Amino acid sequence: MPSTENIPFQRAADADAWAEKRLLPSGYPFSEALKFAAENQVKSGLPDIAVSPLQGKFLAVQCTLIKAKNALEFGTLGGYSTIWIASSSPEIKVTSIEYDAHHKKVAEESIANAGLSDRVQVLQGAGLDVLPRVQKEVKEGKREKFDFVFIDADKENNTNYVNGAIEICNPGACIIVDNVGRRGRIAIDEEARTDPRVQGSREVIEAAGKDPRLEATLVQTVGDKGYDGFLLCVLK
């Protein structure tokens, strides 16, 4: 008898494909730019770890809900999620931090193709190295405080990124930490002891739950990117 273990995941992927056709029609603003960005990532040899189209739309919707004017992103990759965030409003400005110089180049190609170079800045370097510069610029009034933060970088530093972002965010800011569900492995102690990504995901969830500055929840996800989840926080 064939295994049914993967049936729910396949159905979830099928549901994503069905929903994309209805919620992201070909005439959707930036649809061609997003298609270019997705293809450019593959062509340029970047890892297939970008958000899905519906997840990207989710980020844009969150920015729209809170009327975000300034967004901060940790982990640009090829600029796909960056373009989604920037698509939320013609007024929003995005600062994105990317460790890899090749990824930054690919992202800037896609951002330029989308006509967003005037509203999106990609800073190259490790997140914890670049963050102090951004914090300094905010404190000196050279850069505005942020309303939205998307963290999709090295999981071991999730908590450091959240704490650093809080210092330069406006009250009511939305902070999303991606890929912390880890296919449910966060609930397994042994996984946390042996996998630093699981440990980092656990730590940021536990820290958010104890932080009086935040209201937070875990949202588990399933779809064409498999089974994972993200931490959704609001700064009080």
From TrEMBL:
One of its GO terms (biological process) is methylation. SUPFAM superfamilies: S-adenosyl-L-methionine-dependent methyltransferases. Gene3D superfamilies: Vaccinia Virus protein VP39. One of its GO terms (molecular function) is S-adenosylmethionine-dependent methyltransferase activity. PANTHER family: CAFFEOYL-COA O-METHYLTRANSFERASE 3-RELATED, O-METHYLTRANSFERASE-RELATED. Belongs to the class I-like SAM-binding methyltransferase superfamily. Cation-dependent O-methyltransferase family. This is O-methyltransferase domain-containing protein. The lineage of its organism: Eukaryota, Fungi, Dikarya, Ascomycota, Pezizomycotina.
